[in-house]
Structures are given as C-alpha cells and as structure tokens.
C-alpha cells in the first residue's frame, strides 16, 4: 500500500437510526468518521483525530476504528460520548437530533506526523466550532506547511442556520486553506442564501479552488481554479445514475471518501492539482466518488461494505 496517509479530523457520535419511529440500527458515526472507516476498509493508511467519551460508547468508537483499519491513537477520551438520533423518511433521507454540549469540547489536537502528499480531511461543525478554532487553524496551517492536500467538506446542518453570520468567517477561512471544497446545494443555500453554482463559485474565498457541488440525484458540478501557468480551469457537469437506497445518511461522507481514495490511488499531488488536471482525470475521480456514495446507500451502516472495499483495495494495489 502507498506510504501516503489520510488524516481525518472530526467529531464522533453514536448514531441511533430510526425507521418508522422504531430504532433499526446503532453504530458509531460522524461525518469525517464515516469517510475514514470506508477508507480504512479500502486499505488506505488512515488515522483519525477526535474526542469521545470515557465510557462504554467511547470504547465502541475506538474499537470500531481499529477494527476497520483506522488508527485511534489520537482520539482523546473524556466525559460522556455524544449521541445522534437519525429519523429516516419515506425516501430514506434523514432528519437529525444531536445530543452534545459543544461548549465542553476541549480537544488538544496534538499535531500528527504530516508529510508531503498526505491528505487532511475535515469538515462539519467540528471544523468551525469557536471553542476549538485556534487549534483547528493551527492544524490547517501545519498541514499546509508540510505539503498536505487539504479537503474540506462543508456539511453545514440546518440546526446551525441561525449561527451563519457568526460562523461564516471560520467557514471562509477553512475554504482559503483548502485545496478541494465539497458542498451540497443545501450547504451552500444555508450559508449563502443561494444554490446557484456560478454565484457561489465566484466568491472570493473560492477563487482558484477546486469546488465540488453535489445536489442529491441531480448532476454533480465541479470547477477548478486553473493552473499556476495561467491555464483556464475546468468545469464539469457529471451525471448521477439513479439507485435504490436503504439509507442516505452517509452518502456525502462516502462521496468524500471516494474523492480522497482517488487522490491516493491515482497518485495525485498538490502540484498536480495546482498545475491543472484533465477533464478525463476529474471524471474518473467523480465516478469513483459516486460509486462509494452509491455503495453506502445500499445499507444502513453509513459506510461502504467489506466486499466493495476489498475490490477497491485490489484496484488500488494493482495501480501502485
């Protein structure tokens, strides 16, 4: 397996999933967490930075990481673990209730070893939480200085829509640090009050960036910022094949995993990104991301299955 590694930063929660007002599953989760589990299953060298409770759920979270090939050495343990209730509707989309006291977040975020070519993946409220903002910013600066590709998933929940004005500076600062930003139409609408891709991609904080805009079953849009040699950027509209879903809870998380997996599989560096990549290369990445997302939606586990993961790992190993 390639020596490059993926470092994920995000929250951990214990997801209790309801269908028809009855609990049908309970599994450790969290947005970046779900992506890291899928990457670990695919044989990617992965480590996760987070915090969880010093309790039974915390034990389950850490065991779940290690059992799926993700290092839990940098997961801090204290207090009570957060819990999420996810209620699936008739389309298998979820509404959430979160039980966590964010002001008590105290993650120390010890700097892991980061080398050129590694990928740092982060997102959601954890990435903009004012309580840990100084530590998050220091981590992003550290990753930038050491040549990592920085991947930012907005994943901005409607439960925080009343905090947009306060949190927007943190969101846009994250965008400026990131090489690749993925957001859904819902994310951007909550943050900017519009889901018009041209208006969004023209924002100052997104100029020169790679922006991936997902919209459920509608085509995915991608814009690159061009190259350091003045080459114009690429714009792609990538169609989505219809699928039958069991749960869409981890769809976006696993889309992220598919993009990051592709960066490792295709040996894509920050220089490749800044020099400008072909439309064919980007379509290959988007197709892989969609495969990850579609695979996740076939089950209620919020991750890709083991059989799929082994197939992707074999593909990756054959191309190294």
How widely separated are the two ends?
A: 8 Å
Biggest sheet character? 10 strands, mixed
Coarse morphology: globular
Q: Please work out how many helical segments DSSP would assign.
A: 10
Fraction of residues in H or I helices: 25-40%
Look at the structure and give the mean pLDDT.
Answer: 91
Sequence of secondary-structure elements: EEEHEHEEEEEHEHEHHEEEHHHH
Rg, rounded, reads 18 Å
| Backbone structural class | alpha/beta
Strand tally, please? 14
Q: Note poorly predicted spans.
A: none
Kindly estimate the percentage of residues that lie in beta strands according to DSSP: 15-25%
Brief digest:
This protein is an alpha/beta fold and 320 residues long.
Describe the secondary-structure layout.
Layout lengths: L4 E5 L3 E7 L2 E8 L1 H11 L3 E8 L3 H12 L2 E2 L3 E3 L5 E6 L5 E6 L19 E5 L9 H13 L3 E5 L10 H14 L2 E5 H8 L4 H5 L8 E6 L2 E6 L11 E4 L12 H15 L4 H6 L3 H18 L9 H13 L2
Parallel strand pairs: 1-4, 1-9, 2-7, 4-5, 4-6, 9-10, 10-11, 11-12
Antiparallel strand pairs: 2-3, 7-8, 12-13, 13-14
Helix pairs in contact: 1-7, 7-9
């Amino acid at each position: 397996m390639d020596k490059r590694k993926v470092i994920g930063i995000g929250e951990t929660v214990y997801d209790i999933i309801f269908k028809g007002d009855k609990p049908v599953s309970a599994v450790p989760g969290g947005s970046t967490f779900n992506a890291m589990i899928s990457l670990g299953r695919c044989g990617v060298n992965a480590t996760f930075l987070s915090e969880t409770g010093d309790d039974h759920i915390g034990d389950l979270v850490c065991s779940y990481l290690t059992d799926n090939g993700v290092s839990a050495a940098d997961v801090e343990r204290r207090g009570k673990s957060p819990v999420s209730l996810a209620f699936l509707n008739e389309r298998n989309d979820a509404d959430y209730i979160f039980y966590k006291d964010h002001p008590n977040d105290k993650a120390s975020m010890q700097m892991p070893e980061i080398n050129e070519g590694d990928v740092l993946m982060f997102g959601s409220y954890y990435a903009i939480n004012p309580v840990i903002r100084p530590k998050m910013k220091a981590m992003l600066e550290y990753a930038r200085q050491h040549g990592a590709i920085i991947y930012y998933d907005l994943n901005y929940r409607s439960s925080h829509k009343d905090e947009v004005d306060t949190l927007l500076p943190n969101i846009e600062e994250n965008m400026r640090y990131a090489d690749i930003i993925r957001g859904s139409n819902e994310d951007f609408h909550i943050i900017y009050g519009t889901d018009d891709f041209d208006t969004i991609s023209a924002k100052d904080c997104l100029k020169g960036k790679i922006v991936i805009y997902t919209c459920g079953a509608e085509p995915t849009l991608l814009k690159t910022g061009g190259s350091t040699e003045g080459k114009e950027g690429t714009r792609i509209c990538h169609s989505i094949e219809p699928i039958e879903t069991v749960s869409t809870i981890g769809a976006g998380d696993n889309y992220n995993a598919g993009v990051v997996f592709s960066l490792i599989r295709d040996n894509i560096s920050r220089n490749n990104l800044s020099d400008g990549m072909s439309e064919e290369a980007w379509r290959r990445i988007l197709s892989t991301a969609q495969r990850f997302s579609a695979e996740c939606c076939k089950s209620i586990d919020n991750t890709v299955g083991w059989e799929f993961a082994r197939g992707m790992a074999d593909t990756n190993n054959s191309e190294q």
